[in-house]
Write a sequence for this structure.
């Protein structure tokens, strides 16, 4: 792997070290503000919207995402933009405008807790446990990926990166809880961008600007198809191998809405906002940077495609996933190189911290407090949260070392847990808009929806059911899970008892609760609906030059 | 809950980064410039980060966080 080794100097290490010290300092400073468990797990519901909005997008801006999207840019071209625009913005706007009044207004502390209030305890427990397990394992996957990249770039041994990465995230979350995670995420957002921007700038100059880049991309194997997003999507004869139905409904609707609207690691950022208006604006404010992030991921992917000879190898240094690291090696002088390395490390820690802070909240409130030890003092639950953080990270480290022993385990874990999202979204959306849906309908639709997508996934792995690509399988799996969950919800509702209407106030559309009042904002730029519409319109406009 | 303002942290870190990277940018060797396609990237990114840091600090100065209510501690 020495071919990827960067020529890092003392100053680059200094920049990285200053970052580590700052992150830990935030942890220590945030600790002094913690008095109640709501402070620890929900930042005391005190954050302004721009902070939660940037944390919201940062929690998603993990390094696996950045590296993976640059790789997709090099492999599929501009069709990768679908993951940012149709595959994210509408769902984020929907979360802010339609769903947040229920989440924030019902005063729930987590997504599983919403399921307990709307449905019943079995639904709650199933979701809480699967979420908690997923977060710990995914944190481990992040950690392992961080170690792999630092080994390649800096020559650090795997164990050293795993221990340092885990120790820093552990320290700042155990100390400062969610406030510390959120503040660091906002900081990471800026560091990641500052680190990636020079790659795009120098890269574009090297290939002769955007025109030069597009011209050179046309001359590659991908050809002109790499410069379009919706052309040739009537069939599957396009780089992504997906037709527009798969893109719009599979990616744009089921996969995207499942991820953005029910993933507690994301929603938690909005729940920490200081009021309803700020909570609703959180995902919408996050949508604006999301529109532009392709500039520092997809564009570098294309730059790597035309400047790195032989990119796209099956294995070795020239795999697509190394697009960004290769450009760092080739283009960045010491100084900005240090910022880029720091940005990459920061993005790993952002992803991992989001998982860990989501995990400790669900573990403490939804598993320990709900099923193991009820009615203890508030301090007791802060302590449980801190212990859960330590335990979660230790298990994550274990996962990282196990992942080191098996080649593709990372992909399997990621894919496996994405199976939970689509049925969860279906259960949520039906439960929020159809007050007759019964508690047991919630449980069975979640379980059977999950089993449906699991069946398809196993069929794909064992090649019993043939698919063109992993991507195609994920579209179909999500779609099947969604339909199954909706059908099961309708059928089971006919045969099981309903929940009394009193208990559904504030949880179901058309039944306002006391906390659910959505007041008119004072100024237009604080109006969630208007901001949401602007975000969607911008997404549509951005598609026009590259349709 | 009363907590320090994140704008101070971002401002502080970016001012420090800006100063370091601008400093390097002033003394970049020809080989460093060559690698970056002749762009004084350290200088420009350094100045950019410095500006971002100063803007954050200025924003904090002009619009400080509101004092919490006296009984803030008891509210959830």
């Amino acid at each position: 792997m020495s071919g990827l080794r960067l020529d890092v100097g003392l100053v680059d290490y200094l920049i990285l070290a200053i970052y580590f010290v700052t992150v830990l300092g935030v942890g220590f400073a945030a600790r002094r503000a913690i008095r109640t468990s709501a402070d620890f797990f929900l930042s005391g519901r005190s954050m302004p919207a721009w902070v939660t909005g940037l944390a919201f997008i940062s929690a998603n801006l993990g390094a696996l995402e950045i590296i993976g999207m640059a790789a997709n840019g090099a492999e599929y071209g501009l069709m990768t933009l679908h993951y940012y625009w149709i595959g994210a913005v509408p769902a984020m706007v929907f979360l802010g405008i339609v769903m947040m009044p229920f989440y924030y207004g019902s005063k729930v502390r987590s997504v599983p807790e919403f399921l307990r209030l709307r449905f019943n305890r079995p639904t709650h427990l199933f979701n809480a446990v699967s979420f908690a397990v997923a977060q710990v394992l995914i944190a481990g996957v992040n950690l392992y990926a961080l170690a792999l990249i630092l080994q390649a770039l800096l020559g650090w041994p795997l164990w050293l990166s795993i221990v340092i990465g885990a120790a820093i995230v552990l320290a700042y979350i155990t100390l400062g809880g969610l406030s510390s995670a959120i503040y660091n995420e906002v900081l990471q957002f800026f560091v990641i961008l500052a680190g990636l921007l020079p790659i795009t700038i120098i890269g574009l100059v090297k290939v002769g600007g955007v025109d030069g880049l597009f011209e050179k991309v046309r001359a590659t194997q991908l050809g002109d198809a790499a410069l379009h997003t919706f052309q040739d999507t009537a069939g599957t004869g396009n780089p992504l191998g997906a037709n527009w139905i798969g893109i719009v409904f599979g990616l744009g609707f089921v996969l995207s809405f499942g991820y953005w609207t029910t993933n507690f690691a994301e929603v938690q950022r909005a729940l920490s906002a200081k009021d309803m208006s700020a909570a609703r604006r959180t995902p919408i404010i996050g949508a604006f940077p999301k529109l532009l992030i392709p500039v520092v991921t997809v564009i570098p992917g294309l730059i790597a495609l035309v400047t790195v000879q032989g990119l796209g190898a099956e294995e070795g240094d020239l795999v697509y996933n190394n697009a960004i690291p290769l450009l760092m090696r080739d283009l960045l002088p010491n100084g900005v190189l240090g910022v880029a390395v720091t940005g990459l490390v920061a993005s790993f820690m952002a992803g991992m911290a989001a998982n860990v802070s989501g995990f400790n909240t669900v573990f403490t409130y939804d598993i320990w407090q709900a099923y193991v030890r009820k009615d203890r003092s508030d301090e007791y639950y802060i302590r449980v949260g801190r212990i859960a953080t330590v335990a979660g990270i230790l298990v994550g480290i274990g996962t990282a070392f196990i992942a080191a022993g098996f080649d593709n385990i990372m992909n399997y874990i990621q894919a496996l847990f994405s199976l939970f999202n689509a049925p969860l979204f279906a259960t949520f959306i039906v439960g929020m808009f159809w007050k007759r849906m019964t508690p047991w309908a919630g449980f069975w639709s979640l379980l059977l929806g999950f089993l449906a997508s699991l069946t398809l996934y196993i069929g794909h792995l064992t090649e019993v059911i043939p698919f063109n690509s992993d991507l195609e399988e994920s579209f179909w799996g999500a779609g099947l899970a969604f339909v199954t969950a909706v059908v099961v919800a309708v059928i089971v509702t006919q045969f099981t008892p309903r929940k009394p209407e009193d208990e559904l106030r504030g949880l179901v559309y058309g039944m306002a609760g006391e906390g659910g009042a959505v007041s008119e904002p004072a100024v237009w730029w604080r109006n969630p609906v208007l901001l949401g519409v602007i975000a969607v319109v911008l997404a549509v406009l951005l598609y026009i030059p590259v349709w | 809950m009363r907590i320090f303002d994140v704008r101070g942290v971002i401002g502080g870190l970016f001012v420090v980064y800006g100063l370091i990277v601008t400093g390097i940018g002033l003394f970049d060797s020809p080989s460093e410039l060559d690698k970056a396609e002749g762009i004084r990237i350290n200088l420009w990114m350094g100045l950019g980060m410095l500006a971002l840091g100063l803007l954050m600090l200025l924003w904090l100065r002009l619009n400080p966080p509101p004092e919490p209510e006296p009984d803030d501690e008891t509210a959830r």
